Amino acid sequence: MATNLPYELKGTLRSGFEVDKAQLKDFRALESDWREIFRWIMSIAGDMPYYDENNKISGTMAALWHNDVLTVLVEIFQKNLKEYATSYVDGSGTAQQNTYTADLQNKINGWIDRLSIYLNNAFVSGTVSQSMRVAENIREQLRKSLPIVPQPTPRRRNFIHKVLEENNRPYFSMLGALLDIQSKFDYYMQQIESSGDMDASQALLLTFVRSYCRIVQQFNDKFADLPNFYRREILKATPKEAVQDSSFVVVYPNMEVTRKTFSLPAGTRFNAGEKADGTPLYYSLAEKSYIVPTTIKSARVLFPQGRRIITAPLALDGTDSNTLFSTANPVNTQQELGWALSSPMLSLSEGERKVFLYFMMDGATDITRLLATASPFRLFTSGSDGWAEKIHTASYERVGNYLLFSFTIADGEEPLTPCNSDIHGIETEYPAVRILIDKIPTIDVDIISIKFKDIQIRVSVSDIRTFSLYSDVGEMDSSQPFYPFGTVGDKSSWFIFGSEELAIKKILNVSLKGTWNKLPDDGYTAVYKDYALSQAVTNSSFKVTCEWQENSKWNMCRNSPVQLFCTDTSGNIKEEAEFHLDIADFSPLAVGSTFRYNKKAKGFYRIRLSEPSIGFGMDVYRQQFAEVMVHNSKAKERNQKPVPAMPQVPMIADAVLGYTAMDSFGENDRLYRINETNGYEIVNLGTESIQLLPDLRKHYLYLNLDDVEGLKRIRLYFSLRYMRRGSHGSTLASSGDSIIEYYDNEACQWKVFPTECILQKDSGGLTRSGFITLNTFDETNTSFIKGNEVWIRIGFENDIAPENIIVDGIWLNCFKVMGENGDGSPLPAGTIGSLAEDDPRVLEVLQPMEGYGGKAAEDEQAMSVRLATRIATRNRALNTGDYEKMILERFSDIEKVCCIPASQESNEIRIVVFPQPEKRVFPQLPNWKLSEIEQYIKGFMSPFAKVRVINPTYEPLTVDMIVILKDSVQDEGEVQRRLYRRIYNYFVQWLVDEQLPELGKQYSYEGLKAWLVNDEGIERCVSLTITGGKSLAVLDDEGNTEDVYHFSSEESGILYPGRINIEMTDTGDGIEDSSIGMNFIIG
Hints:
Helix content: 10-25%
Number of strands: 53
Mean pLDDT: 85
Shape: elongated
Radius of gyration: 51 Å
Low-confidence stretches: 1-8, 151-166, 586-597
Largest sheet: 8 strands, antiparallel
Number of helices: 20
Strand content: 25-35%
């Protein structure tokens, strides 16, 4: 299947490296195996004569024992069957296999003949012994293993089948029989020796050989102690003592005892349980440590995913692990980005309420295309149950250069309410609107760069039914019909209406609508036609003045006076009562004012009857009615005057209030940026323009620290580990250096920590565990962190964030401790739980992670391996073996090292390292680990040599296969899955078996095809193609392609099936292996 590689590419495995090769335990100065000596004697017996009783040569020694069952058994046992199998496999596809088969067949035939001679001679004696039974068993087993001469059969379709069935199987059948005989050697020997019919000369020889081997073995054993003698007496070497392991403890201060920073001296002991002998086990602080009364309230990550910004919390205490910037994290949520604004303009109690929000843009950025398809925004209003999303319209107006959001609150809908921190996450005095961006647009308009300089709010409200209503007779109920000008309706009579909702806004216009009641049937023209007036009164004679009050003064509306009644084209009065008041600019009601009418109240409007001069003429009516009645009582009928009709003072029913207001952001308005830290950040609209959205299209880790006021130093420990992924050969990207920022609460912006204030940063861009230590005081010894709470975020240069990194915990007050009296084994997490001596300032001690770096005391074998490496390399890396051994000796977590020497194509030495294998995981190491190994080995090599420590390169293949199924197949899916597994396992069996791969391994095309077509559901393979990597064709003697081998295009490469495409059909037309439409072409 796969050819073996040259030695220099195989590398060194730890299992082979840790073998103590400086051993003479199995060194045999003289051969001590009686079976080998017996076989050797038999091999030379043909040249050794023996003499009869007359001292004459009667033949050779071989004639005595050559055909004996013991001789044949020893010969079979001493055959190296593994070499037989290896040689046969190496000759795959060549005529050499036929030679191997014939040779083995001849040997077996020879043994069968010799055993037959032995049995014939033994039968002459007339008794059947145990030796004869052994000979019969061996002869019969050998006979059955011989290949049967094949009978003529129909031509097979597949050549591979023929090779496998007619050549391979007989050879391995013969090897199997020999292997079985070898496994029964001891049993057969016991039967032969106990049979009692062994030839006397042979028994004497066997006794002599065994006695000799015992003496030789005692002599050989003298050499076993020589290596130990050399190490102890010459090198004066002794095994190293145990290396104490280290760990980390988290110390929680007792806030009830002290809220100040305090220290623990170096060497402070911690209890770590007991050792095996029952004595206490102690760990102690490696250096003086300062405990700060500060806590990490929360930690989370923020990163872009497609067109969204994603955030996810991180566990701080190690109880739950999270992967940094994982798109598959179930706790991922979309980060809210946008704005919230609170304003008295949003106090909208009832009616149909239309709201328009104008973001006045700064600059000439045309964002029409941003809103061309679908709005990227979402709009919410504050309600009693929380934030409620509203259907809205977003548009951009080039003329005014503003972004407009509009929405409607239908009549009967719940009014907006001020925000409550428990429900809305923020506390506001007035109702609020929240605008979030849903998806960052992908068009060329950069929404992050858009700025605005002002916000204006316009509201248009109608159908307010609850409002304050007054007349000259007192307060009235707006929900009931009322006389707007009293029951008399004199000139200058009035009514006042208003609402607190209007009083806190900058009103543009107000409307009062209703229905007229108690109107005369024929209108007022008919009512006053019999009145003796200097000027006739008609429907159009009634006018009112409209006023609004401010600063104890009534101000005339700009459209005053107006007609009281609306008439149609015929002059008839309409039933609809409408008053429209155009208001001049005025100041809104001060915050906290009580809304009740008085001479200084704001938000009230007055309608005063100004014409006609008689008002509704009730006084005139009473006067003229009396006069007419007196006159008519004296006058004859023909001279009588018409009696004036009694005036009808109208009423208004179903009154509703409406208004339009508009204002820019003022002192009562609040603007909040919805940020990535504490949610809502207040922003002051000043002279400078403001970004519409913050630029969060990067990867960040956020930490929220509390009780930091006066704290001089922040020391954080990040417990991180690399998550090794399987099933694909991904390349590990390097992480950019970490960029640390803090949020300035006063300036409301993120600022980079000064370089001189970053005292420690050894986490490698959050790719490995380590400390980050920050100084919060500048060169003037003044803290630049204001307040008791601070947000810190960690970004990355060029936004190259770490991949596949798991966060096991983030801690303050985390300190390194070292074992004092341990045995070097790692201390399990959670073992350390208290100080050896109680300290009231310490509330709790936690050991979140297990120990590391310890090493058990050396035994003789470990010392031997260490010394052998030291002697072999002399602490210098000169050849490939030196590199491999020194890395394995230094890094216990490295399982295999393969050094690729410099060549004409590459003038650098490449060292490929492999971690310990895991099932279905591609072996890879994080870049920081590769760098650590590289820096280590550079200290032992020539300064003129170039070296690079790398991961293996995983190179994908694409395998396409078309097969014809057998008619008997019922489940095509099962066959397809089986073929998929066979292809996958052919290339990466090491992945399934939790082994490490070999570099540059070559894979046979014919071997893969033979492996696939043997599937029970396959009739034949139409085509099989492999693309990717490199390939080399192997030609036979006639120049025809015999096979094709596939291998990686790089010396450090490993092939794996990236894509497997299997097409299946149950029919085929063509001749032999050719199919119409595939590879059967008539030209």
